[in-house]
Design brief:
Length: 302
């Protein structure tokens, strides 16, 4: 939907902070007014491939993606990254929420020698695959991992102990960390009687960050332009969120001290840092420090 809206958004010059992290939203044409709060799905997947390469050379990988532009967003970038890393994309499969039995899929990938599955999906289909892998005894043979909306507390709630060991690329702090934005999220969840499933969801944190950026941009626009809050002033406020004027709401990790959200006219990704986290004992814990993917920048527009 956001990809289809790009021409209209550009025509009316409406600054837009989407829930989607599809890299195509900030690629030409009609991309001037789109701003991604965090790293794109493509960068997350390439970062996972780099992480694999730390310990497994010439890895055989399968991509399992949602049957939509959301799922397919990462495929071309992953193929280019694999060539540079010496990895092989053995297969690309599309799996939606209706796939309740993934036995045939997993046996086919195992027979093809797949060592790693990288998911670009939402938590439900991934949880089904993890549970089937555990039932088939393939959980120790094929390592599974995925981009931001595949993981978090939603995955653990749906997959249970089958999620153990799953690797997750995310730019967000977890609910176990003492960060200003996370603390605000907990306060608001308590104030508005949100249940634990909502409070713990990465979707809640993503929504909070998007809202925080929008509100901050409007506040800055009002201060800078004598109370005038409109398309142009909010746009100017967004592209001014950098350097000493970077925004620090405390929802996303950073690779630069004191800088979290950093936009310019040409840099339309806010929090560029991400981490790889692993499901251990029913929660996700970081296994890397925040980093940006150098390789993604090389394969983004080759």
């Amino acid at each position: 939907a956001m990809l289809q809206l790009k021409p209209l958004i550009n025509e009316v010059k409406m600054p837009t902070i989407p829930a989607s992290a599809h890299i195509g939203l900030i690629e030409p044409p009609n991309n001037q007014y789109m701003f991604l709060p965090v790293s794109s799905y493509s960068e997350q997947v390439v970062a996972l491939m780099e992480y694999i390469n730390r310990t497994s050379k010439n890895a055989k990988i399968a991509l399992v993606v949602n049957p939509s532009p959301f799922g397919r967003a990462v495929v071309d970038h992953a193929r280019r990254a694999a060539q540079r890393l010496g990895q092989t994309i053995v297969d690309v499969r599309e799996v939606g929420g209706g796939n309740l039995d993934n036995t045939a899929l997993l046996r086919a990938l195992d027979a093809a020698g797949v060592e790693f599955i990288i998911h670009q999906n939402v938590a439900g289909p991934v949880a089904n695959i993890l549970k089937d892998a555990k039932r088939l005894g393939l959980d120790k043979k094929i390592k599974q991992m995925g981009a931001v909306y595949t993981g978090g507390a939603d995955l653990i709630r749906l997959a249970g102990d089958a999620a153990e060991g799953y690797l997750w690329a995310s730019s967000y702090y977890t609910l176990d960390e003492n960060a200003p934005g996370i603390n605000l999220q907990k306060q608001l969840a308590a104030k508005y009687n949100r249940g634990a499933d909502i409070l713990n969801s990465t979707n809640y944190t993503a929504g909070m960050l998007a809202a925080a950026i929008a509100v901050e941009a409007m506040k800055r626009a009002a201060q800078r332009f004598n109370g005038r809050i409109d398309n142009e002033t909010v746009y100017q406020a967004l592209i001014g969120m950098n350097g000493p004027n970077a925004f620090r709401p405390g929802f996303a990790v950073s690779t630069k001290a004191g800088i979290e959200i950093d936009f310019t006219r040409s840099e339309q990704t806010g929090a560029e840092g991400l981490r790889v986290l692993e499901a251990r004992g029913g929660k996700f814990v970081p296994v890397t420090e925040p980093f940006t993917s150098t390789l993604f920048r090389q394969v983004r527009n080759p």
